[in-house]
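Students often ask why inverse folding is considered easier than folding. One informal answer: many sequences map to the same fold, so there is more than one right answer. In these notes we will look at a single instance of the problem. The structure comes first.
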């Protein structure tokens, strides 16, 4: 069980890093540290790995029967699916300056949707580590020898 929660925590952490990377790229574009072609290339290159990680994470929760965690990830998946169906998941060079604030807002909306499952997975990771029978600092014989001293 520890491996499941550790995997979920790491996947969510990578998703948050991808969204923050996109936000930083948009901020760099806004301040003219990067040109529009590079910014669009960087952002679009991160979109499909983000979708793939979402799919892996939701599949992990679905196949292990963790319904609450699946439902806690569903707003983020729904939002991404909605953007994909409206063909707004990719950024275009011609529209980037006019859509800069909207694109930043989209990524800022994604962050709280990821922090909630991240906190929940961290809680369950710690809980499962403390509850796991194989997770001990000392073996029983070491504990008994300390008691007899």
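Output (designed amino acids):
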């Amino acid at each position: 069980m520890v491996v499941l929660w550790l995997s979920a925590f790491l996947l969510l952490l990578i998703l948050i890093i991808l969204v923050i990377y996109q936000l930083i790229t948009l901020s760099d574009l806004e301040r003219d540290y990067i040109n529009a072609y590079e910014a669009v290339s960087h952002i679009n290159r991160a979109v499909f790995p983000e979708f793939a990680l979402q799919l892996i994470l939701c599949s992990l929760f679905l196949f292990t029967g963790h319904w609450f965690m699946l439902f806690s990830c569903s707003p983020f998946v729904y939002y991404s699916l909605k953007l994909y169906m409206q063909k707004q998941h990719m950024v275009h060079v011609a529209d980037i300056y006019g859509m800069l604030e909207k694109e930043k807002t989209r990524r800022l909306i994604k962050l709280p949707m990821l922090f909630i499952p991240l906190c929940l997975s961290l809680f369950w990771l710690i809980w499962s580590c403390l509850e796991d029978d194989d997770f001990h600092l000392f073996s029983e014989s070491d504990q008994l020898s300390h008691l007899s001293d």
